[in-house]
């Protein structure tokens, strides 16, 4: 919903079920003085200003757990597409350029025995790691508050998958320096939030061949792409589909609605992020 319309239509409401693209900040909260609960239809909540909501006694909730499997599966879809050059192959066939089997056509990277680095301590990262073990990969993990661990992980991993929330501390967690630490030819997968990666630096790393490929479901200036990204054959780009399965989206809707109803009924919502409404 366009911002202006959201501000207009939310005015006078007691509860709001919002999308991750809706900014719930002081401006919106002041424009909607009756609001008691805001249920975010997402697990990530960088669009919510927790301090502004707390100061106004507005409860905020998110939808954890129900999209863990869907998002981990999509991270793997990107990982495999990058490693095995799935999109390049598809484009080649559609362009009528497939002339028959060729021993050197679109060679990719095998995964068995390789190292998968998971950045982030949460459920989605753990699920991506579990799938990785099934592929025979060695797993390394590093939390966002562990710069040394992150540096080690970047140096040792053939694939790095990002699973941190977006906070001031994780904005550009992966920048020019970190990309420079990665193994030559490594793959980067981002299903977390776009601004965790400095996309300009990423484009340079992909263009130079320093990085083998990147699979991105989220973008720094979403939905806008940084210059040059769209022309890179070694970038696989998806329109923020992490939780886009019918099962996950239905479960998210139910969870958000339950949180909203609980908050409006004066009960503690299951996924309370900040502040119970004033009685
Ligand atoms: C989330 O829930 O935070 C995802 O990015 C949207 O599916």
What does this entry look like structurally?
By secondary structure, the protein is of the alpha/beta class. It folds into 2 domains: 3-65 and 246-274, NAD(P)-binding Rossmann-like Domain (Rossmann fold, 3-Layer(aba) Sandwich), CATH 3.40.50; 68-96 and 108-237, 3-Layer(aba) Sandwich (Rossmann fold), CATH 3.40.50.720. Helices cover 37% and strands 14% of the residues. The chain contains 10 helices and 10 strands. It has helices spanning 3-10, 26-31, 50-55, 68-83, 86-94, 123-134, 147-156, 176-181, 199-208, 246-264, and strands spanning 15-18, 37-40, 59-61, 115-119, 138-142, 159-162, 187-190, 213-216, 235-237, 272-274. The strands form 2 sheets. It has a 6-stranded parallel sheet with strand order 5-4-6-7-8-9, sandwiched between helices. Strand 6, helix 8 and strand 7 (187-190) form a beta-alpha-beta unit. Helix 4 crosses helix 6. It is elongated. The chain starts with a helix and ends in a 5-residue tail after the last strand. The site of (2R)-2,3-dihydroxypropanoic acid (DGY) has 7 residues, from loops.
A few lines on this structure:
The chain has helices at residues 3-10, 26-31, 50-55, 68-83, 86-94, 123-134, 147-156, 176-181, 199-208, 246-264; strands spanning 15-18, 37-40, 59-61, 115-119, 138-142, 159-162, 187-190, 213-216, 235-237, 272-274. By secondary structure, the chain is α/β, with parallel strands linked by helices.
């Amino acid at each position: 919903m366009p911002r202006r319309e959201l501000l207009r239509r939310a005015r006078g409401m007691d509860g709001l079920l919002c999308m991750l693209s809706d900014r719930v900040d002081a401006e919106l909260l002041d424009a909607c003085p009756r609001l008691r609960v805001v249920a975010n239809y997402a697990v990530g909540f960088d669009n919510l200003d927790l301090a502004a909501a707390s100061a106004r006694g507005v409860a905020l909730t998110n939808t954890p757990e129900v999209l863990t499997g869907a998002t981990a599966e999509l991270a793997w879809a990107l990982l495999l597409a990058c490693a095995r050059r799935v999109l390049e192959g598809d484009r080649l066939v559609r362009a009528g350029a497939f002339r028959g089997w060729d021993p050197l056509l679109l060679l990719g990277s095998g995964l068995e025995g390789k190292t998968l680095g998971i950045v982030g301590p949460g459920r989605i990262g753990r699920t991506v790691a579990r799938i990785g073990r099934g592929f025979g990969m060695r797993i390394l993990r590093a939390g966002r508050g562990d710069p040394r661990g992150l540096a080690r992980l970047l140096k040792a991993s053939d694939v790095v998958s990002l699973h941190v929330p977006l906070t001031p501390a994780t904005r550009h967690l992966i920048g020019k320096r970190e990309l420079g630490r990665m193994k030559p030819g490594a793959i980067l997968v981002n299903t977390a939030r776009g601004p965790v990666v400095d996309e300009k630096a990423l484009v340079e790393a992909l263009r130079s061949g320093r990085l083998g490929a990147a699979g991105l479901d989220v973008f720094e200036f979403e939905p806008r792409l940084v210059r040059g990204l769209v022309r890179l054959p070694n970038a696989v780009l998806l329109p923020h589909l992490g939780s886009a399965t019918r099962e996950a989206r239905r479960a998210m809707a139910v969870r958000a609605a339950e949180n909203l109803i609980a908050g409006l009924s004066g009960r503690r919502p299951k996924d309370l992020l900040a502040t119970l409404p004033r009685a």
